[in-house]
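Fold this complex.
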Amino acid sequence: MLGFILKRLLLIIPMALIAVSVTWALIRVAPGTFYSSEKKIPAAVEAKLREKYGLDDPWYKQYGIMLSNIARGDFGISLKYEGQPVNEIIARHLPYSAVIGLLAYLLALAIGLVAGTIAALRQNSAFDYASMAAAMLGLSVPNFVLGPLLVLVFSFWLYLLPPARWGGFTSLILPVVTLAAIYAAYIARLTRAGLLEVMRSDYIRTARAKGLSERSVILRHALRGGLLPVVSFTGPALAALLAGTVVVEKVFAIPGLGNIFIQSVLNRDEPLVLGIVAFISVLVMIFNLIVDIAYGFIDPRIRYE
Amino acid sequence: MNRSVGKILSFSLIAALLFSVLSCSRVDSGNYFGRTVPPDDNVLRYVSGAEPESFDPHISSGQPEARIYMALFDGLVENDPKTLLPIPAIAKSWQISSNVDVFVFKLRDNAKWSDGTPISANDFVYSFRRGFDAETLSRTASLGYFIRYSEDFNNGDVFVKKDGRFLLEHEVNGTEPYTVNAFGPETEFAKFINGPTRLTLPGDEKERAKLFEKDEKLRMAVDGAEFVPVSAEDIGVEAVDDMTLRLTLRQSAPFFLGLLAHQFFRPVPRHIVEKHGRDWTKPENIVTNGAFKVKHHRPYDELFVIKNENYWDAENVHLDGIKFYPIDENATILNLYKGGAIDAFLNHSVPASWIDEVRQYKDEYLDHPENATAYYSMNITKPPFDDVRVRRAFQMSVDRDALSNYRKVTKPLYDLTPAGIFPDYDKARAMVSEEMRVEKKKTPEEWAKYNRFDPAEARRLLGEAGFPVEGSEGNFACPKFPTDSVSLTFNTNENNRMVAEFMQAQWKRHLGITVSLKSQEFRTFLKDRNDLQYTGLAQSLWSGDYMDPFTFLGLHYGRQNDGGSGFADKEYDRMLDEANSELDFQKRYEKLARAEAYVMDKLPVVTLSIYATNWLKKPYVKGMYPNPGTLHPWKFVYIEKDPAKWDRNVDNIMAESNPRTTAQLEELKRTMTQN
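Structure:
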């Protein structure tokens, strides 16, 4: 087990390197620079800027400098927002995304697991149909539609919640619900499907035959097996949620990492783009690893060598 | 039984929900849009657009930053809240030489930085020199190139010293010597800066060598000479004494005073910049001299500025603070406004789909003409747009009235300079236009359509250029036109696409030509446009930097210009130079109008529309106007808590007189005539 974890941790390094390199190449290919605007800047100033950031150095030199910076864990200084270190920017904006992401994750998990479990246990009941219909709706309504819809109802009709911006608990509700909807729907469907399959399996019949209470059968035996697909889904989902979600952050004007990421790409702010890509890719890989480890605990059939 | 109880329950639940929705859907706020409640504190909440790039006024060129700099830094002059014309700020008065090439400013003696350090003329000298220093990396330094030798300094050029004296430009070029008439106190520096223009050459040796290769005479003249870098001390900026600043220009520039309100000319605190270097703009370090100072900055969330008690005019600053929210998502901005979470927001920000709804709230919706134009540049370096007839055909096959009706927030544009912004210039232009008509022997009817909308003439011109248009109304075709090599490039944006599709339909309908549309991400687009990499037409938008037609006419001035068409014409440059050295106000406008007529005859652009401001402010926000640049001198702005005094049925806020603002303005302008 320890060997497996170590191997996987080591694997993160080349994987992150590939992600960063591909991103670096893509930024190079994209036309335009961080300083371009409608108004041409003075030639001498442009020359100074290019010199300062080494933009006219051969590509392998620039690539080398970039790699050595990253190896030292220093992503450099933002090009657009002069004087702001990338590490600082990520550290500053991650908490916004993380709070919303974590709350959305917990909400999605709570709604999804409960609804999915009840739906599976009462298959073909009104609740089953209603919750699965709601889940279908949750899956098919994109969050850039759901967000404004919730704003319309809760901010403009009911005047209950602020329509956007960060500030206080009430301002979290709409973005968290918007973000959670699609994940709750997924989780509900996965839980229901997983449970239904497991409930028909031999070991559940055995458990029942042994005279265990229905409660114990479901909680101790069925859920454990039935949740495997949910676990493999929610691991990467949590990583994605924590690292910031572009659309929801834009709609609700939340200064999270997703918002910054999009802006950094549009600004051609290379160090910032690379920093965020490296950070997110490492985050996703770590969560995948956690999921794999969790598998071993949940499902006794899985063993790591 | 059970089932019916459930039914009743769910029915009453839905009914209750519906009732609560309906009963809450109308918060009575009179004829105002959404929730209209002034903030509890005396702090304005304003959406300023994209996250500011820097708080250093020398660095950034953006409008969102310009509005923030206006709160933090006071320049020599400030913009009038309605007209944008220069009004006194740190300079309490000024004198201008008869050639409009020397400006002497008297500074007020009570101006201080927010840390209490007094401001003197030396602060301005330091700031101007810093702005032009290429190391500062100012993106807007070129705006100040009118100041003598500042362009040479910014470019890193050199003077040429031979036999112990500096070579002069006219000696080498054989032109008339250019000198400045002495104006103001006589000083050593004045003798130098007023003297005949020195010869300058590129600082880079390779570039110099290239120049010598082309110009044997120049090489001979400078042979054996010493090259002395143009230094910060050589630019035409001088502190005559602590409270007197003199600026000397390289040419007459009647619009220069207005330009001085631009962020590039606002001073930075030397003692703080030298202490902290690049970090001087960090919230914990920054020191300002404007009506407000930085309280805190949470990037992408909020910039909170509070009243600067050390500001020289602090008693006339009405707000306790301003919260700038950096949001660029228009739908979100409108949501915040409707929900009463903000009091005003930046221009061009009401989403197109909301304009009809919002327009009903005329006390809030501000739809005034702007010092900004939209046009399509045509790449005149490549066929088929290297032929002026083709260009004119494209210009004359567009119904701009229909475009404006379609866009809802714009007015038709027929020239480079927007109509309705500079009324005296409009008169001069009308006069010149009449002269042109007579010269070209056109009837008034023909002339009314010239360069405007005349599809039949457009088809004739296209035929003359070798691309005959066949077919009849509603079914034209132009088979010989190289549609493959012509496209319309614009940066990805819903409004740009709307206009592009409209234009595509116009050309299809009137010329039978289908122009393909090419939507590009902004920076990709900028590169293609600025480097003339596009084929055919490219979207262009221009916001004037100052209140003078030259801000638009200058777009096609010089070899490396911002026009985006590849247009460079010595005759046009000469006409503009001549106009700018004309001292009579009205005659200058006439000369500018002639230059404009000249370039419109060559037609490097398809004109589209004049922008409207298109933003909202709550009726309780006073002293804030939809001026042609949406630039707000914040010390005039206040929040009116008494609903009786809110804007109500105001027909035109620009014509309405607010006694409080008028009095404040009059008091400020009073010093202008004192010396």
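DSSP finds 23 helices and 25 strands in chain B.
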